[in-house]
Each structure stands twice: as C-alpha cells, then as structure tokens.
C-alpha cells in the first residue's frame, strides 16, 4: 500500500512551498507521526509528519525544490 505525503494549506495566499530538507531518506523506516521533511513558505517553516508507519519510498522532490500546496 502506498500513502502520499501531502503539504497542508498555509492559507489562501500561499500556493507553493520549498523543501528545506528531508529529515528521513528514501528507503528509511518511519513511524507514524514521525517528522520526515521540513518545508518552508514565506510565512512559516514546518516539519511534516509521516501519516503512517512504513518505509519511505519514491521521494520526487529534493532539497531546495518548490512544490504546490
């Protein structure tokens, strides 16, 4: 089973965020609610938690990339 990590809404004016850094690397085991990536918008910096326990696979955005909210 595959679970997608989604970037939460930062408010109406924020449509994209930057990947500051991955805390966990592709192939690492993560526990549910464990921080896996730090994202940054023009208003805030936030660590995103894993929605479920499992092995992190298929990272498509790298450090410094900009992604849609």
Could you provide a short overview of the structure?
The protein has 69 residues and is mainly β. The chain has strands at 16-22, 29-30, 35-40, 45-49, 54-55, 66-68.
Can you lay out the helices and strands and say which pair or pack?
Elements: E1 16-22, E2 29-30, E3 35-40, E4 45-49, E5 54-55, E6 66-68
Antiparallel strand pairs: 1-3, 1-6, 2-5, 3-4
Which terms summarize this structure?
mainly beta, 6 strands, four-stranded antiparallel beta sheet, two-stranded antiparallel sheet, 69 residues, 36% strand
Task: Describe the protein in words.
With 69 residues, the chain is mainly beta. The chain contains no helices and 6 strands. The strands form 2 sheets. It has a 4-stranded antiparallel β-sheet, with no helix packed on it. Strand 3 and strand 4 form a beta hairpin. The radius of gyration is 12 Å and the shape is globular. The two termini are 23 Å apart. The model has no long low-confidence stretch (mean pLDDT 91).
Estimate the global geometry from the Cα principal axes: globular
Poorly predicted ranges: none
Largest sheet: 4 strands, antiparallel
Order of helices and strands: EEEEEE
Structural class: mainly beta
Oligomerization category of the chains in this entry: single chain
Cα separation of the termini: 23 Å
Share of residues in strands? 35-45%
Radius of gyration: 12 Å
The portion of residues assigned to helices is: under 10%
Tally of alpha and pi helices: 0
- Order of strands across the main sheet: 4-3-1-6
Average pLDDT level: 91
Q: Count of DSSP E strands?
A: 6
